[in-house]
Amino acid sequence: MLKKIATGVSVLLLATLTACGSGGSSAKDGDSGELTMGFAQVGAESGWRTANTKSIQQSAKTAGIELKFSDAQQKQENQIKAIRSYIQQKVDVIAFSPVVETGWDAVLLEAKRARIPVILTDRAVDSDDDTLYETFLGSDFVEEGEKAGEWLVQNTEGPVNVVELQGTTGAAPAIDRKKGFEEKIAARPDIKIKASQSGDFTRSGGKQVMEALLRSHPDVDVVYAHNDDMGLGAIEAIKAAGKKPGKDIKIITVDAVKDGMQALADGEINYIVECNPLLGDQLMELAKKVVDGEKVPKRVVTEETTFTPEQAKKALPDRQY
Ligand code: GZL
């Protein structure tokens, strides 16, 4: 599958983006001056998404790129509609973060036939046709899940009951963060995922699911939430149940947005794996190269780190998002 090919292809770290030669089939040569980009965003479901949108809009302005932007409210059909409208408007390049991995081949083929190059940002598509997009710029979600699992393996002893708050069903970060986490905790058979349910990457979703899981699994020791927002919702549910988040029930999340980092600094979250939303500058650089017919790497991986409570206290004052 393309997602697998993308990870097998020469992966380039974000900071070392280079131009390598001939462009994609639909690229025009040497006229990225007056560039128009159509961007189909997932929605505004989380603090991460808000930061990601801000980064894209600011970077387009700085790069002198005209940006047509749409918010799909986390619905694939809205993203497909937006992409079709960008094709009709004959934009120079289309970029989007696929809300789920599958169901994109048809509309991406329409873009290809219209000779409009497509760039994936943030999330991957799962397709057998690797000519449907020029490059995928974003994090390695399996690695993020591995970092979360590794922390749990190293920082607990004896039987550990985990409940998992999954991201949007079918979304690449949800699938891969689960995969990476499970691969790592396999080293400790006494760490068991007792329940795993989607909170759709939202704070309200995380709270609702956690309320139910506290009733069905009162013996829960650890929450693994696929993003900070669901972790913050879980904190509300844990407090309402009279327990101390970060102490009675440990919490591991992914993203490292400001609200999550504050909860980490306050000891209500125990560990956060960073997922960097500031993709705007690299996206605009890639778009110019693609429109100018320059070859770009099939996969550009975002560099990111992890945070303990102490590290969060130090990082918070300068945090951009
Ligand atoms: C990850 C991104 C995820 C974030 C969530 O790259 O797709 O979507 O982790 C966001 O906060 O909703």
Describe the model.
- With 321 residues, this protein is α/β, with parallel strands linked by helices.
- It has two domains: 2-139 and 277-302, Response regulator (Rossmann fold, 3-Layer(aba) Sandwich); 141-275, Rossmann fold.
- The longest helix is centred in the first third of the chain and has 17 residues, at 47-63.
- It is elongated and about 55 Å long.
- It contains eleven helices and 13 strands.
- It binds beta-D-galactofuranose.
- Beta-D-galactofuranose binds at residues 45-46, 48-49, 122-123, 138-139, 173, 201, 227, 229, 254-255, 275.
- The site of beta-D-galactofuranose has 15 residues, from helix 2 and strand 10.
The secondary-structure class comes to alpha/beta
**What is the CATH domain class of the largest domain?**
Alpha Beta
Query: Share of helix among residues?
Result: 40-55%
Tell me the radius of gyration.
20 Å
Bound molecules: beta-D-galactofuranose
Order of helices and strands: HEEHEHEHEEHEHEHEHEHEHEEH
Q: Major β-sheet, in short?
A: 7 strands, parallel
Number of strands: 13
In CATH terms, the superfamily of the largest domain is Response regulator
Mean pLDDT: 92
Question: Based on CA inertia axes, which overall geometry fits?
Answer: elongated
Named CATH topology of the largest domain: Rossmann fold
Count of domains: 2
**Poorly predicted runs of 5 or more residues:** 4-10, 15-32
Q: Order of strands side by side in the largest beta sheet?
A: 1-12-6-5-4-2-3
Beta-strand content = 15-25%
